[in-house]
Write a structure and sequence with these properties.
Distance between the termini of chain A: 39 Å
Radius of gyration of chain B: 17 Å
Strand order of the largest sheet of chain B: 3-2-1-4-5-6-7
Strand order of the largest sheet of chain A: 2-1-3-4-5-6
Oligomer: heterodimer
CATH topology of chain A: Rossmann fold
Largest interface: A-B, 31 and 37 residues
Shape of chain B: globular
Largest sheet of chain B: 7 strands, parallel
CATH superfamily of chain B: NAD(P)-binding Rossmann-like Domain
Strand content of chain A: 15-25%
CATH architecture of chain A: 3-Layer(aba) Sandwich
Number of helices of chain B: 7
Radius of gyration of chain A: 16 Å
Shape of chain A: globular
Helix content of chain A: 40-55%
């Protein structure tokens, strides 16, 4: 079996470290990319082939919406969301060439909507949910699965728990997990 | 919770289909497996023939498993039945049988282990529900109701025993390529398969893998429903 390759873009160093450790143990050759670093196309090209993309989406600043400058608010949303979108877009051609392409987004699902001052975060993570589900339908026929590991930002799970979930979704027996939200912890809705 | 192998798992419905696949996957990972089924369970460390709708008998089986293999760390409730019928053909007897086997069978097995697990602050339960229990589907009223009931039961039991360190989660598979699905089932028809993003049924080993993931994740997930469904319900 040829070595599978994974590209990881994290937002939390401890989680990224746990992901690298676990995916490496699973037999992946893992590359970490920094959202503030090189261009996504260059990052993907530097690896050559790609089998799994793991991309964390962070949290824009929390603030009460009525006091916000709408342009700054929108900028906060886009600054958090767009790097993930661009990395996914850049990865798709290489993932199509994989025998079992995997995209795992790490986000907060709908959990941020329960918190005050979280309009920007909820906009970002609502977009991530919709992106996950839509990409899953669009890329499924190409043999690429797309799922989201959901971590409640207010009660972050242990980094190793995130890594176990990502490992499962990137593994050879998760090909029927398509467009699902895999929620860590005990919060979350079933499937809206 | 971290499991030190060889840990002991009880699998209901271990004689065939999903349950047998799950039992085999657990064995391969080093678990000692007790299979509970109406019929003999092949390739398990301890096979016990029992009707899961008989609560006292199931409880006695679990007691015997603990005597012979040791404390039960995991329970997977895969015993279940399936039939597809229009609502007007689901008479009282069929309704009651479906709910009794699928829901009360699940509850009986959980009841037999959960007190023991709570006493040790250790253990993980994975119920097998169904994608249809969350989404529903034409001709599946009594089956979907029984599986939806398992989802509700799972989430509530997780809330009850999660705080003492017992994990309770569910795997809700989509239509799977198992003997439960007849050759002429509409779930095998191209018309259905073409609607799935990955264009195929779920493989039994993918369902076993979801179960193993939940068992090995310890208490990192609570009351969650993991649905390998080939994208049937997104």
């Amino acid at each position: 079996m040829t070595t599978r390759t994974a590209l990881v873009q994290g937002t939390d160093d401890a989680v990224t470290e746990a992901l690298v450790r676990r995916l490496t143990a699973d037999g992946f050759r893992v590359t970490v990319t920094d959202p503030a670093g090189e261009e996504p196309d260059a990052a993907v090209a530097a690896i050559g082939s790609l089998d799994a993309l793991v991309c964390a989406v962070g949290q824009p600043p929390h603030a009460p919406f009525p006091d916000a400058n709408p342009q700054e608010w929108f900028h906060g949303v886009m600054a958090t969301l767009t790097p993930a979108f661009r990395l996914v877009r850049a990865s798709v051609p290489a993932l199509r060439e994989s025998a079992a392409g995997r995209i795992v987004l790490l986000g907060s699902g709908w959990s941020t909507g329960d918190r005050p001052g979280a309009t920007a975060a909820s906009a970002v993570h609502g977009a991530v949910v919709a992106l996950t589900k839509t990409l899953a339908r669009d890329l499924g026929p190409d043999g690429i699965t797309v799922n989201e590991v959901v971590c409640d930002d207010a009660e972050p799970p242990a980094p190793d728990a995130v890594a176990v979930a990502v490992s499962y979704l990137c593994g050879p027996t998760a090909g029927a997990m398509v467009g699902q939200l895999l929620t860590l912890g005990c919060s979350g809705v079933l499937r809206p | 919770m971290s499991l030190t192998h060889p840990a002991v798992a009880v699998v209901t419905g271990a004689a065939s289909g999903l349950g047998a696949g799950i039992a085999a996957a657990l064995t391969e990972r080093g678990w000692r497996v007790a299979g509970l089924d109406l019929r003999p369970s092949p390739s398990v460390d301890l096979g016990l023939e029992v009707d899961v709708t008989d609560a006292a008998a199931v409880d006695a089986c679990v007691a015997r498993v603990e005597e012979e293999l040791g404390p039960v760390d995991a329970l997977v409730t895969a015993a279940g039945i399936y039939e597809m019928l229009p609502v007007e053909d689901v008479d009282d007897a069929r309704w009651e049988r479906m709910l009794t086997v699928n829901l009360s069978g699940t509850a009986n097995a959980c009841a037999a282990v959960v007190g023991r697990m709570a006493g040790r602050s250790r253990g993980s339960i994975v119920t097998i529900s169904s994608d249809l229990g969350v989404g529903g589907s034409e001709g599946d009223v009594h089956y979907a109701a029984s599986k939806g009931a398992i989802v509700g039961f799972t989430r509530a039991l997780a809330a009850d025993v999660g705080p003492v360190g017992v994990a309770v989660n569910s795997v809700a598979p989509g239509a799977a390529d198992t003997p439960l699905l007849e050759e002429r089932s509409p779930w095998r028809a191209e018309e259905f398969l073409s609607t799935l993003p990955v264009r195929r049924l779920v493989r039994p080993d993918e369902i076993a893998a979801a179960v193993l993931f939940l068992l090995e994740a310890g208490t990192a997930l609570q009351g969650q429903v993991v649905s390998p469904n080939a994208g049937a319900t997104i």
